[in-house]
Structure formats: structure tokens, C-alpha cells
Write a structure and sequence with these properties.
The complex is a heterotetramer of chains A (about 170), B (about 100), C (about 400) and D (about 625).
Chain A (H helix, E strand, L loop, with lengths): L1 H21 L3 H21 L3 H26 L11 H25 L5 E2 L9 H9 L3 H23 L4
Helix pairs in contact in A: 1-2, 2-3
Chain C lengths: L2 H34 L15 H11 L10 H17 L7 E6 L2 E5 L7 H11 L1 H10 L3 H32 L4 H6 L4 E2 L3 E2 L11 H14 L11 H4 L9 H26 L9 H4 L2 H18 L6 H20 L1 H30 L5 H30 L1
Chain D lengths: L5 H16 L5 H26 L6 E11 L2 E9 L1 H24 L6 H20 L3 H19 L6 H32 L4 H10 L2 H22 L8 H4 L5 H10 L4 H8 L1 H4 L3 H22 L5 H21 L3 H28 L17 H15 L5 H16 L1 H26 L14 H16 L5 H9 L8 H24 L3 H9 L1 H7 L4 H48 L7 H21 L5
Antiparallel strand pairs in D: 1-2
Helix pairs in contact in D: 1-2, 1-4, 2-3, 2-4, 3-4, 3-10, 3-15, 3-19, 4-5, 5-6, 5-10, 6-8, 8-11, 8-13, 10-15, 13-14, 13-18, 14-15, 14-17, 14-18, 15-16, 15-17, 15-19, 15-20, 16-18, 16-19, 17-18, 17-21, 18-21
Classes of the chains: A mainly alpha (about 170), B mainly alpha (about 100), C mainly alpha (about 400), D mainly alpha (about 625).
């Protein structure tokens, strides 16, 4: 059951992830990304991260991606043109990617040779109570700083988007 | 019946998703798609945070994920506002055409 | 009994009841609006138009499914599915009643009792924007697109006050599980005032409830916030290009959303299945009400306004009386009485939705956004802050 | 816990409210916030003191660690003992009266909210200074009051003279603060702490012969700081110019409270000074010199506020004289009485100026006695008090100081008595010129509003009876008992000197008004010297300011800045441009290429990670 769920949603995540990259129209990429996020939310649940799973859907899928879709619809963004000037990225891209992936997988295999099996429900400290307690005690300062960051981001976004009116 | 998956598979999935994000960043030419590739990379990293959290039986990884999400939200707000402004000024969303910083 | 089988049975029951309710909700709405406007409403199909929903279903199913040429096919089809699917999903975590024992099987009157139920609801409500937004975009029609954009902006904006309003009772009840939330509202203050969240100390959540209701109107795109489908500006908004069953799906999604929102309101603020009167008395109130209804129907059947009422009203009277009798059976009482209170509270909220639709005009779009950000949002934050403060002080 | 922090924080809250919202608040609200916060603070002082009882030992409260670095630990610690209790009462009490006065005086001025915000900020810093239980926190208050003084002297910043005066005050104070800072460094090096209790404890344990040199240095540096803040020779020059500020500021900051901070600081450090007799002698001499010099300058000034300013300098000299001869309690006593009568003098002068619509020149006044009787009466009280006529408050404290000086060295007593006579003379000169004789200007004087004369009346009562507070007996617990009995003749002589000064002024300015001018004529050089304040400002300008500017320009700017630093910067710039020209090739402007660079970096990082240590 656990393995089945993992494979199902890992596959969804992978397919949607590939789709994000290969789709030509931004809105299709965006919705594929929503798919990745949904699949990841389920994987979080399997890993015992209930709160994070819910927040993933609320914040990522429900707020950030809606914003993306909104902007894409607003600008009526189309596919891409042929212009491609970044020579470095075009030539080096594929080999770089392969090296990167190879390095990471090598490191994962080396550093975590005996990784534990993931059993659903084995880790029970990912509920809102635990996360909240940690967030408001040990990580209180980062939390407050983040709220300031968000405030700044709101101001920045408003200022940037406002020019339209002039 | 209850087969279980090793944790490293989650990490591998995370690595592959991250690489996909990088690929999107490197090869896609629409600003919005590039931006979404960044979000994909962040998601991949989040997955590994949560996986590590599972491995060490500590909630701290979740906190990091939480912060990543919050920062991603802020980033999306500002980033999309910038994209709107760029589109207004240049009426293009092709990232390669936005190169006034050249040289 | 097997967990999966049990869940499947419950899901089947809920689905049938819910879908029927949705169909009849439309009939109720038309009837109520008609009476508000001094009309009769549907009255041709069946007695008092009771078979009207059936006729509508048949009509929508058999109509030609027009699909414009320039639409994005995949998303065009996906959008209504998404809308109705998400709308129905939320109902899965709503508790209708306490844990009961039926035929030796102990079970919750709830499909899934998850400990982050409230977060689940918020998550579902936050992604239900996609259905509307996608429909608008995929239709390749400027009215539809504008409707979709409006809907997206509106729903995102009102989600904040909604979440803030929902968070306030959570602070007092100290849990995210909907079942525990309802349990936390059991009992009475001073012996008569139910300890519902809107009355409970340290901070009665009346303000939060008001904010919740207003935001719920906007989230479900109902009057006075139905701008995404404002017909005098946008033809029919995001579902301009939809017809037949796909159109029906949007229609159904709207009603399903209403039902969900009202259920959430009942659960979070109005004490869920807990009766408004002390127990000994309240067990018999439902039966009495049904007997009263039966008596009334019977009386009108004896003095019919129209000829066919002579037959139909006594039949109704019999049905009501039967339900009343059923409610008196001790075995059925444990299941049906909580359900009765839950349904009647939700029904009252639904009536408010319809009532408002029959009363208020539509907002202008800038007013709508302004209202969300400059009125509702600060009020929500203030209420949340005060609640938190009082809860902290109490401890 | 007595919540001492409330005392300074209340005015701070007032500052924030008025400073941030003041622009939108009505005047009544600004008044309520400004005066209310100080009044509540005053009430809290009273409540605290009554709760703490006789205060035989200091009551300390520590809130949090402010700075912690190595051996250095500075806490946000406040403490109240008898010395700070006296100062607290003076600061908050007089401060409140002056706030009330200012609501009347400033009612027609622009920047109303700004004025009160600064005034409240000043109260915050002053109270921090008084309540601090370590030197660094005291220094915070010290600098803070300096800042507020700067802001308020330059309140009329559109007036060139005001902004120059503000700069002057700030810069001269810098010199003093430099000394104070050095003293703090030395203190930390020698004692390893800046807490009052620990420093005094450590100093007390040092054997005299070991410590004398260091302690003398520390004390002299502290004295430099005190001389700057309290306007002693040679750093007194800023105070007369500071009169450019609004009159309530002159009264509160430049007469009653801030300028006595130096006295307070030296008294606070009594434990150190007592072990450094040389420093004590210097303090006494500086005080005496200041007293005489300022008094002589005061004889010939024409601006009413300047007269009182020099009088302040002179009286501060008295206080330092008291400290220097070891009569710390008497010095603080004089701080208190001086706060009463000098605040009153300034507020009265403010009332006169207000009545005359901004006129400050004594030559343009005259005959005001009948026009503004309340002001006259209260001002007369203050003048009698400062002249040292019994039983007014000034008599008690000045007498104690003079007796202590006599005990220390009789010649100091005689100089002090002469100064007292001069003080009486010039203060009454100002009174007579302003209120007697014929009106000389073309003004239509009017009596001030109640918000102004009620504080005047209150201060007049304090000036009359303030001498019976027995501050010095209250402080005996801290500084030891006062001097033994003295022959009554000394008291008679000093009173007679004061009376003689008054009589002379009466003779010269009321009975025979022409006499003053003819004396000035015949004195010639001497008069010009005094009238021009001994040319101190000119000398400072020629000896210090001009050479400094010249050195700055020639050496620092022309040679060092333009030659060395710019050369280095330009050289770096040229090299950077050269390197940048090469690196520019990588700057394609293509975000995707940049991303590729990032990925290359990441791969490299992973590579080093993979190479280093295999798994441990």
C-alpha cells in the first residue's frame, strides 16, 4: 500500500514535472506544476508531514500558483518565440544537467547507504501542534523576520504594479 | 502486502525534480516558465527537507519547508509584479530579449 | 466490518443524499425567490413543482453539447469536472453526527475524520479557483476570460478573511479536527444558551461568523458577489460557452459549494449536530415539528385551495407523520436527531443564502475588492487578535 | 520591583506619540500627552520614593543585559538612591512646571508638536542619566540630553544664529564627551566593570599610593566631561549662545537640569574623587574661576537672557567649587535651589520677552513693574533668592558652599563672596533696568496667560521656601556629615555682600541712571574687555578653530584625502576597470547563461563535496 501510493504519486510528480518543462504554453506548464505540488502533498502525508502537506496545497497550489495562472491569463501569455541568445546555456545545458544529476545521486547513495524504509504513520510529530510549538518557540525570531519580509514583499508588489495607473 | 520504500527514493525523486527545474531554467525562454521552474526546484528541495525530517525524526525540517514556502510566496508576489512591469515596458515575455544589462 | 467497505457504503449514502439535495436546493431556491417576489415559482411539473428538478436533469442531459471550435479541449472539459469534484470533496470531512452504532457496527457519522480537517477544507477551497479560472481561459471567449479573471481575483481576495474567520473559533477550541470542534461546543451556558462558538467565551465569535458568512457569499460567487457571472456585463461569465451537462456541472458545483460552506459554518460556529435546547427536551422537538407539519398539511388538504391539493396534501401529511414517528423510535433517535439538528441549521444558512439573493443588489467590482481588503480583512485580523489575546489571558 | 523603568519610559511614549502623530493631533491633545506623561512620571517618582521609604541603601533593578562581550557586561540596570531621588524630583517636578509653561509660551509658534516631542525626549534621556546604575547607561542619557539640547537650541532652524549656536553647543560638548569616553575606557581597563557599585567598591579597596595616578587621570577626564556639559572654564562658551533656543528650553535644559548633569556625575563619582585630592583641587579651582569670570562678564551684558546665562555659568561654578572642596551634599543642594530660582528667572525673562513680543534687549525695556505685576513679583523672588538674602533658598545653599570653601581655604571664601556681590549686582541690574524707570521701547506689554504665570508662582514659592528642604542633611548619609560650626561673622559677611550688590545696583540704575554709563566710560578698556566677554570666543576662533580648519584643509584634504586616499581609490578603480573589461565578456545579459554559470558552480561544489572525505 505505502509503496503503491509512493509509486503512483512519484510517477504523477515526475510526469507533471517533465510536463512543466516541455509544454510550450505557460498555462499548461503552470497546471502541470500544480499537479507536481498536489502529488508532493500526498508524499508529504506519507512522510508524516500533515501540516506541511496542507500548507503545500493552501499556499503553493492555492495561492502562489493561482497568482501565476492569473498573471498568465492577464497577460494572455503565449508560447515562446524562436529567439535564443543564451549560447552558454544552449551548448552546456544538457551535459551540465547530466553531471549535476549524477553528482547528486552519487552523493545520496554514498551518504545514505542504509536509508530507513518509510512507513506511513511512523513519524507522528508533523501535525500542526508540533510544528506550531517549534515555530513559536525555537524559531520565533525567524518567523517574525519572515513576517517582515512578507510585509516588504507586499509593499514591493504594490509599488511595482501600481505604475500602471500613471 | 505492505511493501515499503527506502527513504533514499524520496531523495532521488527530489533530485530528479530539481534537475527538471534546472532544465526548465536553462532551456525555457518564457519568463513565466522560468519562474515556475524555480518554484519546481524549491518544491524539490522541500521534499528532501521533509524526507530528512522523517529520517531524523525531527520536526525542524518541516519548519524549513514552511519558511521556504513563505519566502516563495513573497518571491512570487514581487516576481510577478516585476514580470508585469517588464511586460508593460517591453511587451515581451521572452527572457532572451530582456538583456539591457549586456556588457 | 472492513474499513473500506464501510467507507464505501457511507460514501454511497452521502453521495445519493447530497446529489438529491443539490437538485432540490434549486427547486427550493426558485420557490423561495418566487415567494419573495410574490410569484408562485415552479408549479407545473408534479405537485408544487416537486418533480421540476427531475425534469431539469432530463433536459440538461439530453440537450446538445455544443463545443466551440477554438476552445482548448483538454482544459475545457477538465474545468467543470474540477469545479464539481472539488466542491463535492469538501463534504467528506464534515461530521454530520456523533459516533453511532448501527446494526452492531460502530461508526462516525462522517466520511473521513482527519485531524487536520479544517486545513483540508481550506486547501480544497483554495484550489477550487482553478475550475472557474480555467473555464474562463479555456473557452477562448473574452467574456468568459474576464469572468474567470474576476472570479480568480475575487476568490483569492475573500479567502483571506474566510481563513481568518475560521481561525478564530479554532483558537478557542484548540483543535483542527472538525469532530473535536463540534464536541468542544457541547453543553449550555447558564443552562439555556448553547455553548456554540458564536456564544462561547472568552470571545463570542459573532463577528467572525459574520465575516465568515460574507466571505462565503463571495467564495461561492453568490449574490451580492456574483460578479464573475454578471449577465448584464459578461453575458454569463466564465460559463458562457458551456452547455448541457458541462453547464449543469458548474451549476451543481455552485450549489455544492453553498452546501459545503453552510455545513462548515454550522460545524465551526453553530455547534454542529448539537441541539439548541437541553437534551431531554430536544429529543422530542424534531418529532413534534414533523407532527405539526403533518397536521398543517392535513388541515390544508381538507380545505384545498386547488383541486389536486385534496389528494397531495394528505399524502404529505402522511409522510411527515411517518417521519415524526420514526424520530420517536429510540433506535432511530440516536442517529436521526443529531442529523436533524445538523440539517436544520445548515438548511437555515442555505435559506439565508437564498434570502439574500432575493433581497440584495449586486456590488460593483471595485467596491467588492475594496470591501474585502479594507473592511473585511482588517476586521478579521482584529477579531483574530482579540480572540488570541483573550484566550491567552484566560490561561 | 518598583518598575523604575516607567519613569523614563513614560516621557518616551509621549515623544513617540507626539513625534509620530503630532502633526495630526490638536494642540490640546499634544499638551495633554506632553504634560501628562511628565506629570505621571513625576507621580510615579513620588509613589516609588514613598514606597521605598528612607532609602538608606540604593534600590536597584536590572531588566536585561544590554551589551555582553568578553568581560564586559552592561545591563539595562536602573537604581535609585538618595542622590538620584533628589535629582528625580527636581527633573520631573521642574520639568512638569516648565512643560506647562511652554504650552503657553509656545502657543503661537510653528512646529508645536516637534517642540514638545523633543522636550519629552529630553526628559527621557535626562531621567535615564539620573537613574542609570552604570557609567555606560549614564553616558547614553548624557549623549541623549546633548542631542536634545542640540535639537532644541536649533529649534528655530531657519535662523542662522540658532543653527550656529546649536552646532557650537554640540561641538564643544564633543570635547567634553571625548574626555568622558576616555575616562570610561580607563575605568573599564582598571576596574573591569562600569557598574557604579563595582567601580566604587574596587576603587575603595585600592591602596592609595598605587591608585593615585590612575585615579587622578580618570577623575580629571571625568571633570573634562563635566566641564563640557556643565559649561565650566574653558568649555563654557556654548551656554550663552544656547540662549538662541526657546526660553522654556533655556530654563529646563540650560539652567535647571541638563547643565547640572556634570555636577551630578561628579557627585555620583564622589568615591573616586575623594581618593584623588589633586583632581579635587582642580575641580575647586575650575569652579571658582568659572564663577568669577562669568560673574564679571554678566556685569555688562545687555541681553536679558545672556545675563541670566552667565549667571547660570557662574552658579555652576559655585557648585563645582562645592564639589571640589568636598562639600558634595552642599553642591547638590545648590543644584536644587538653583533649579528653582534659575528656572524661575528664565521663565520670568521668557514672560517679559513674551510680553514685549520678542524683545530681549534690556536697553529697550524699563518701567514694566506696573504692566506685568505677576511677572515682576515672581522675578523679584528669584532675584532675591540668587542674591543670597535670607531666608530665601539661595541663601541656604550658597552659604553652605561658602562656609565649606572657607574651611578648605579662606581665600576661596573671599573670592566667592566677591562673586556673590557681583551676582547680586548684575541680577538686580537686569531687574531694575527692565522693571523700573521709564519705558524705553515702543511696546505694548501684556500679562502672560495663566498657563505661564501659574508655573511662575509655583517656582516662586519654591524659591522662597526651597531652602528648608534640607537636601544636604538628607544626603549626609551618602557623603558624610557637613563641616563643623563656623563663626557667625562669615555668614553676615556674605549676606552683606549680597545686600551691597543690590544696593549698588539700586544706586546706579534707579537712583542715578546716568552713573552706569559714566563708570563704563571711565573704566574704558576694562569695560570693553568685560563687555566683549574677554574676547574668549575670538581667541578660541583664532587659536583653535582657524588652525583646525587650516590643518584639515591643507593636510587632511589637499594632501591626505586628495593625494593618498583618492590616489589609492583611483588606482583600485583603474585596476578594477581593467579586470572588469576582461570579465565583461561573461556578462552576456542573458539570464539563462547566468543560470548556467550557477549550475557550473553547483556542480563544482558537489564535486569537491564528493572528493572530500568518503562518507566518514
Amino acid at each position: 500500500m505505502d509503496a503503491g501510493l509512493f509509486f503512483l504519486f512519484a510517477a504523477i510528480a515526475l510526469v507533471c514535472g517533465i510536463n512543466v518543462v516541455v509544454q510550450t504554453h505557460p498555462i499548461k506548464s503552470a497546471l502541470s506544476l500544480v499537479g507536481v505540488m498536489g502529488a508532493l502533498a500526498v508524499l508529504y502525508l506519507l512522510l508524516g508531514a500533515e501540516f506541511i502537506a496542507a500548507v503545500q496545497v493552501v499556499v503553493y497550489a492555492g495561492a502562489i500558483m493561482v497568482l501565476f495562472v492569473f498573471v498568465i491569463m492577464l497577460l494572455n501569455a503565449d508560447g515562446e518565440t524562436r529567439v535564443s541568445r543564451a549560447r552558454l546555456a544552449n551548448w552546456l545545458g544538457i551535459p551540465l544537467l547530466i553531471t549535476l544529476l549524477g553528482m547528486i545521486s552519487y552523493l545520496i547513495q554514498r551518504e545514505i547507504p542504509y536509508s530507513p524504509r518509510v512507513v506511513f504513520g511512523a513519524f507522528g510529530r508533523g501535525g500542526p501542534r508540533d510544528v506550531g510549538r517549534l515555530l513559536f518557540t525555537e524559531y520565533l525570531l525567524p518567523f517574525e523576520v519572515t513576517s517582515v519580509l512578507i510585509l516588504i514583499a507586499i509593499l514591493g508588489a504594490v509599488v511595482l504594479a501600481r505604475k500602471e495607473i500613471e | 502486502m505492505t511493501a515499503h520504500v527506502p527513504l533514499s527514493w524520496y531523495l532521488m525523486l527530489s533530485a530528479v525534480l530539481f534537475a527538471l527545474g534546472v532544465a526548465g531554467f536553462l532551456f525555457r525562454r518564457s519568463v513565466i516558465t522560468v519562474f515556475m521552474s524555480i518554484e519546481l526546484m524549491l518544491n524539490a528541495v522541500n521534499l528532501s527537507f521533509v524526507a530528512f525530517s522523517y529520517q531524523w525524526r525531527q520536526t525542524d525540517g518541516h519548519i524549513f519547508t514552511f519558511f521556504v514556502m513563505v519566502v516563495a510566496a513573497a518571491e512570487a508576489a514581487v516576481g510577478l509584479a516585476i514580470i508585469l512591469t517588464v511586460y508593460r515596458n517591453r511587451s515581451t515575455l521572452q527572457i532572451d530579449e530582456v538583456d539591457s544589462m549586456r556588457n | 466490518m472492513n474499513f473500506f467497505l464501510l467507507t464505501l457504503i457511507k460514501a454511497g449514502i452521502v453521495a445519493v443524499v447530497l446529489l438529491t439535495t443539490l437538485a432540490y436546493l434549486q427547486w427550493v431556491e426558485r420557490k423561495v425567490i418566487a415567494h419573495i417576489q410574490l410569484r408562485l415559482g415552479p408549479s407545473r411539473v408534479g405537485p408544487h413543482g416537486l418533480l421540476q428538478p427531475l425534469a431539469d436533469v432530463v433536459k440538461l442531459l439530453t440537450k446538445e453539447d455544443v463545443q466551440p471550435r477554438e476552445v482548448n479541449r483538454f482544459f475545457y472539459i477538465m474545468a467543470p469536472l474540477l469545479a464539481v469534484g472539488l466542491a463535492l470533496t469538501s463534504i467528506a470531512v464534515i461530521p454530520f453526527g456523533p459516533t453511532v452504532e448501527i446494526a452492531g457496527v460502530e461508526t462516525n457519522m462522517q466520511l473521513a475524520d482527519i485531524n487536520i480537517g479544517v486545513l483540508f477544507l481550506l486547501a480544497i477551497s483554495s484550489i477550487s479557483v482553478y475550475g472557474v479560472a480555467l473555464a474562463g481561459w479555456a473557452s477562448n471567449n473574452k467574456y468568459a476570460l474576464l469572468g474567470g479573471l474576476r472570479a480568480a481575483a475575487q476568490m483569492v481576495s475573500y479567502e483571506l478573511p474566510l481563513a481568518l474567520a475560521i481561525a478564530s473559533p479554532l483558537l478557542m477550541l484548540n483543535t483542527l479536527s472538525l469532530r473535536e470542534i463540534v464536541n468542544g461546543q457541547e453543553g449550555f451556558l447558564f443552562g439555556f444558551l448553547p455553548r456554540w462558538a458564536i456564544f462561547q467565551g472568552p470571545m463570542p465569535q459573532l463577528v467572525a461568523f459574520a465575516v465568515f458568512l460574507i466571505a462565503a457569499f463571495a467564495e461561492t460567487n453568490r449574490v451580492p458577489f456574483d460578479l464573475p457571472e454578471a449577465e448584464n456585463e459578461l453575458v454569463a461569465g466564465f460559463h458562457t460557452e458551456y452547455s448541457s451537462m458541462k453547464f449543469a456541472s458548474f451549476f451543481m458545483a455552485e450549489y455544492a459549494n453553498m452546501v459545503t460552506m453552510c455545513s462548515i459554518g454550522t460545524t465551526l460556529f453553530l455547534g454542529g449536530w448539537h441541539p439548541p435546547f437541553p437534551h431531554a427536551f430536544s429529543d422530542f422537538v424534531p418529532a413534534l415539528l414533523f407532527f405539526g407539519a403533518a397536521a398543517m398539511a392535513f388541515y390544508h388538504g381538507l380545505n384545498p385551495a386547488r383541486r389536486k391539493d385534496r389528494l397531495t396534501l394528505p399524502v404529505f401529511a402522511l409522510v411527515f407523520a411517518a417521519i415524526g414517528l420514526l424520530l420517536l423510535l429510540p433506535a432511530a433517535q440516536t442517529v436521526l436527531v443529531p442529523l436533524f439538528w445538523f440539517v436544520s441549521k445548515t438548511g437555515f444558512l442555505l435559506f439565508v443564502f437564498i434570502w439574500v439573493r432575493g433581497t440584495l443588489p449586486r456590488f460593483r467590482y471595485d467596491q467588492l475588492m475594496q470591501f474585502a481588503w479594507t473592511r473585511l480583512f482588517p476586521i478579521g485580523i482584529l477579531n483574530l487578535f482579540l480572540t488570541g489575546l483573550l484566550v491567552a489571558l484566560q490561561k | 520591583m518598583q518598575h523604575l523603568w516607567l519613569i523614563p519610559v513614560l516621557p518616551l511614549a509621549g515623544f513617540f506619540i507626539n513625534g509620530l502623530l503630532g502633526r495630526r493631533l490638536p494642540k490640546a491633545a499634544i499638551n495633554a500627552v506632553a504634560c501628562g506623561s511628565v506629570l505621571v512620571s513625576f507621580a510615579w517618582v513620588l509613589k516609588t520614593l514613598s514606597a521605598l521609604g528612607s532609602l538608606e541603601t540604593a534600590h536597584a533593578e536590572s531588566y536585561f543585559t544590554w551589551i555582553e562581550s568578553g568581560a564586559l557586561r552592561i545591563g539595562a540596570d536602573l537604581a535609585v538612591d538618595r542622590l538620584s531621588a533628589v535629582m528625580l524630583l527636581v527633573v520631573t517636578g521642574i520639568g512638569f512646571l516648565i512643560h506647562v509653561y511652554a504650552t503657553g509660551y509656545m502657543s503661537h509658534e510653528g512646529g508645536y508638536y516637534r517642540f514638545f516631542a523633543f522636550l519629552n525626549l529630553f526628559m527621557f534621556f535626562m531621567l535615564t542619566l539620573v537613574l542609570a546604575s552604570n557609567y555606560l547607561l549614564m553616558f547614553v542619557g548624557w549623549e541623549g540630553v546633548g542631542l536634545c539640547s542640540y535639537l532644541l537650541i536649533g529649534f528655530y532652524f531657519r535662523k542662522h544664529s540658532a543653527s550656529t549656536a546649536a552646532n557650537k553647543a554640540f561641538i564643544v560638548n564633543r570635547i567634553g564627551d571625548f574626555g568622558f569616553t576616555l575616562a570610561l575606557f580607563l575605568m573599564f581597563v582598571k576596574f573591569g566593570s562600569l557598574d557604579f557599585a563595582r567601580v566604587f567598591d574596587a576603587a575603595g579597596k585600592l591602596p592609595a599610593e598605587v591608585s593615585a595616578g590612575w585615579l587622578t587621570a580618570i577623575c580629571l577626564l571625568l571633570m573634562v566631561g563635566a566641564a563640557g556639559k556643565s559649561a565650566q572654564v574653558p568649555l563654557y562658551v556654548w551656554l550663552p549662545d544656547a540662549m538662541e533656543g526657546p526660553t522654556p528650553v533655556s530654563a529646563l535644559i540650560h539652567a535647571a537640569t541638563m547643565v547640572t548633569a556634570g555636577v551630578y556625575m561628579v557627585a555620583r563619582s564622589a568615591a573616586l574623587f575623594l581618593k584623588a585630592p589633586v583632581a579635587m583641587e582642580v575641580v575647586a579651582l575650575v569652579g571658582l574661576a568659572t564663577a568669577v569670570m562669568a560673574a564679571t562678564i554678566g556685569l555688562a551684558q545687555r541681553d536679558i537672557k545672556k545675563v541670566f546665562a552667565y549667571s547660570t555659568v557662574s552658579q555652576l561654578g559655585y557648585m563645582f567649587l562645592a564639589l571640589g572642596v568636598g562639600a558634595f551634599a552642599s553642591g547638590i543642594f545648590h543644584v536644587v535651589t538653583h533649579a528653582f530660582f534659575k528656572a524661575l528667572l528664565f521663565l520670568g525673562a521668557g514672560s517679559v520677552i513674551h510680553a514685549l513680543g520678542g524683545e530681549q534687549d534690556l536697553a529697550q525695556m524699563g518701567g514694566l513693574r506696573k504692566k506685568i505685576p505677576i511677572t515682576f513679583a515672581t522675578l523679584l523672588c528669584a532675584a532675591v533668592a540668587i542674591a543670597g538674602i535670607p531666608p530665601f533658598s539661595g541663601f541656604h545653599s550658597k552659604d553652605e558652599i561658602l562656609l565649606a570653601a572657607h574651611h578648605h581655604a579662606p581665600w576661596m571664601y573671599w573670592v566667592g563672596v566677591i562673586t556673590a556681590a557681583m551676582t547680586a549686582f548684575y541680577v538686580f541690574r537686569a531687574i531694575f533696568l527692565a522693571f523700573f524707570g521709564e519705558p524705553r521701547g515702543h511696546h505694548h506689554p501684556h500679562e502672560s496667560p495663566p498657563s505661564m504665570w501659574i508655573p511662575l508662582a509655583a517656582l516662586a514659592a519654591l524659591s522662597l521656601g526651597g531652602g528648608y528642604f534640607h537636601v544636604s542633611r538628607y544626603l549626609e548619609l551618602m557623603f558624610g556629615p557637613g563641616e563643623a560650626e563656623h563663626p557667625a561673622s562669615l555668614v553676615v559677611i556674605s549676606v552683606a555682600a549680597g545686600a551691597a550688590g543690590i544696593a549698588l545696583a539700586w544706586l546706579m540704575y534707579v537712583v542715578r541712571p546716568g552713573l552706569a554709563d559714566s563708570i563704563a566710560q571711565s573704566a574704558g578698556v576694562l569695560h570693553r574687555l568685560v563687555f566683549n566677554k574677554y574676547y574668549v570666543d575670538e581667541i578660541y576662533h583664532a587659536v583653535i578653530v582657524r588652525p583646525t580648519i587650516a590643518i584639515s584643509r591643507e593636510l587632511l584634504w589637499r594632501f591626505f584625502d586628495a593625494g593618498v586616499i583618492d590616489g589609492m581609490v583611483n588606482g583600485v578603480g583603474t585596476r578594477a576597470r581593467g579586470i572588469g573589461g576582461v570579465l565583461r565578456l561573461a556578462q552576456s545579459g542573458q539570464i539563462r547563461s547566468y543560470a548556467a554559470w550557477v549550475v557550473i558552480g553547483a556542480v563544482f561544489l558537489l564535486y569537491t563535496l564528493a572528493m572530500s572525505g568518503d562518507g566518514q
